[in-house]
Design goal:
The structure holds 2 protein chains of 2 kinds.
Chain A lengths: L6 E12 L2 E12 L3 E6 L5 H8 L7 E6 L2 E2 L5 H7 L1 E4 L11 H8 L3 H5 L1 H11 L2 H5 L9 H13 L5 E5 L7 H16 L4 E5 L2 H7 L2 E6 L2 E7 H5 L2 H6 L4
Parallel strand pairs in A: 3-8, 3-9, 6-7, 7-8
Antiparallel strand pairs in A: 1-2, 1-4, 4-5, 9-10
Chain B lengths: L4 H32 L6 H19 L7 H18 L10 H22 L14 E4 L2 E4 H23 L1 H11 L1 H6 L4 H23 L10 H16 L4 H21 L5 H15 L13
Antiparallel strand pairs in B: 1-2
Classes of the chains: A alpha/beta, B mainly alpha.
The complex binds adenosine-5'-triphosphate and magnesium ion.
Keywords (chain A): Amino-acid transport, ATP-binding, Nucleotide-binding, Transport
Pfam family, one (chain A): ABC_tran
GO molecular function, one term (chain A): ATP hydrolysis activity
């Protein structure tokens, strides 16, 4: 076992499911401080389900989840937000008819984040300088890639200890996917731990430090992303080589 | 026959002033719809509650009706917030038609409590300045209509300020825009709903108070009429849009007054409905709606 102390997130042997249907079997993963970790796999393999368990939307059937040194399985989403976990969901869930500026400010709705809102806004705008240009535009008027940046930036406005990203590349053109992935790498380089869920395996392996591969609810592989890029099974199944 | 500009201007100004009150009623309904996605069929009965609040304070304490706003508004806000917490919040997971049944039930309960308490005969508050006017050229403005218009303007401006220039307002707009998104950023949307329903009820009772020097209050019947007017006002403008509800209210006021004056006053309440039907036939999305969603 690796040193538990520097794990920001540690998921240990969880079974997850909906109703009576189990969809994730004995999954374990860790994210250390400063790490960008990928969680990849095909449609319906259970990636979002793991994220939902981490952010408190569903409770594990078995196993434990530790976040920032505390056992957190069974906590509610707003409690997880309060503990410092930002979840940028699939489909972004922006406030479409409100300005980008309003969207960012709303990211700091919790009292603790409110106190450091100006400070965080400045940091976020340094990371995403383009957002300054769109500050007064309605979120819905931006391109998909810009909207994704707003969603990530809004998550950062919480001043989180870690950020979960669910399929940020969804619906984006290949060029925009590259931009968004580069932006995610920039965020990670500030020291922010990130768990990145993606179907876009190639891109994730290029930007992440480590990755876990999920298939039909079972973890089949994990390791440094550079090693996985050379893995025969990955090459065949996901990279089309 | 010459067109009578003076009486036209007279009717126009009366219509705009009374329309302001309709706007106030409609704004409450549309705000609640925008955030909670329910149509409150008891909204008109909240207006009547405001009327009886002024009647009660006048008969017990001799208060001027406008003074009773100081009691009616905060009380309306608290009652609305409580109703949402205790009754409507239980409908979150329920099918949409249950909110219709519950708010209609609420309307029946309010109407009948008023009937038991105040009796069936219409009630009003007579103020000494009821027939005073101020004149601008040949057009004269009734003081009580002017006060109604003024109160409306102040309250709507206040609401606008809260919605657009405060943290609470931003959280309300966010909840109306995307409830899941609001929850994800840590907004307590159940609390926001209670506040919004409270605001909606406060606006309705305010309208009731400023109407009492102008109109009679009756317990069970007039509630439905005001709900209908509020519904016309909001749908005219496009449901969920506050600016549009204001325009819809003004339009309804003008149409009613003009119809009553140039056609016959017997059908005063029908003119609004007629225009409502016409507009919906021509523009199903409402006057200011952007897109038509046909399923
Ligand atoms: N709310 C739900 N109720 C029941 N079953 C669900 C629910 N959400 C997901 N599932 C099932 O759980 C399995 C895993 O779904 P999950 O959303 O975690 O997959 P995913 O890896 O995120 O897929 P994708 O890449 O398509 O988003 C799927 O078989 C799916 O049908
Ligand atoms: Mg998914």
């Amino acid at each position: 076992m690796s040193d538990q102390a520097d794990n920001v997130l540690s998921v240990q042997n969880v079974d997850l499911g909906y109703g009576s249907l189990k969809v994730v079997f004995d999954a374990s993963l860790t994210v250390k401080s400063g790490e960008l970790v990928g969680l990849i796999g095909g449609n319906g393999s259970g990636k979002s389900t793991i994220l939902r368990a981490v952010s408190g939307m569903i409770k594990p059937w078995k196993g434990t989840i530790h976040f920032d040194g505390q056992e957190v399985s069974g906590r509610k989403p707003h409690e997880m937000a309060r503990l410092g976990l930002a979840h940028v969901p699939m489909g972004r869930q922006l406030f479409g008819n409100m300005t980008v500026h309003d969207n960012l400010l709303l990211g700091a709705s919790l009292p603790a984040a409110r106190d450091r809102r100006d400070e965080n806004l400045e940091k976020v705008l340094t990371l995403f300088p383009d957002l300054k240009k769109y500050a007064r535009e309605k979120a819905v008027q931006l391109s998909g890639g810009q909207q994704q940046m707003v969603a990530i930036a809004r998550g950062l406005m919480l001043g989180p200890k870690m950020i979960l990203l669910d399929e940020p590349s969804l619906g984006l053109s290949p060029l925009l996917v590259k931009d968004v992935m580069a932006a995610i790498r920039r965020v990670a380089d500030t020291g922010m731990p990130i768990l990145l869920v993606e179907q876009n395996v190639k891109q994730v392996l290029q930007v992440s430090d480590r990755a876990y591969v999920l298939e039909n609810g079972y973890q089949v592989l994990d390791g440094p992303s550079s090693a996985l890029q050379g893995n025969e099974m990955i090459k065949k199944a996901y990279l089309g080589l | 026959m010459m067109f009578d500009y003076v009486s036209f201007l007279q009717n126009l100004s009366n219509g705009v002033l009374i329309g302001g009150v309709y706007a106030l009623i409609g704004v409450g309904l549309t705000l609640v719809f925008g955030v909670m996605k329910i149509i409150n069929f008891a909204h008109g009965d909240f207006v009547i509650l405001g009327m009886y609040c002024a009647v009660l304070l006048n008969s017990l304490l001799g208060w001027d009706p406008y003074l009773s706003l100081l009691v009616a508004m905060p009380l309306g806000f608290m009652a609305g917030a409580l109703l949402q917490r205790l009754v409507l919040s239980r409908l979150m997971e329920a099918p949409p038609e249950s909110s219709l049944l519950v708010t209609l039930g609420l309307a029946l309960v309010i109407g009948n409590i008023l009937l038991l308490t105040f009796g069936a005969e219409p009630k009003s508050v007579n103020v000494s300045y009821a027939s005073s006017t101020v004149s601008l050229g040949k057009v004269s403005f009734s003081i009580i209509l002017l006060l109604a218009g003024l109160a409306t303007m102040v309250v709507i401006a206040g609401l606008y300020t809260v919605l657009n220039h405060t943290e609470l307002g931003r959280a309300i707009r966010a909840t109306a825009d995307n409830r899941l998104g609001a929850e994800l950023v840590g907004i307590n949307t159940r609390w926001i709903e209670a506040v919004v329903f409270g605001i909606g009820m406060a606006l309705a009772v305010t309208a009731g108070v400023v109407l009492i020097p102008l109109l009679f209050a009756t317990p069970t019947f007039s509630g439905a009429i005001f709900t209908l007017k509020a519904f016309v006002v909001t749908v005219l403008g496009g449901l969920g849009n506050i600016g549009a509800a204001i325009a819809g209210g003004l339009l309804l006021g003008v149409v009613e007054v003009m119809g009553a004056s140039y056609l016959t006053s017997d059908y005063r309440d029908a003119y609004g409905l007629l225009v409502f039907l016409l507009i919906l036939l021509l523009r199903p999305e409402g006057l200011f709606g952007k897109t038509v969603k046909r399923v």
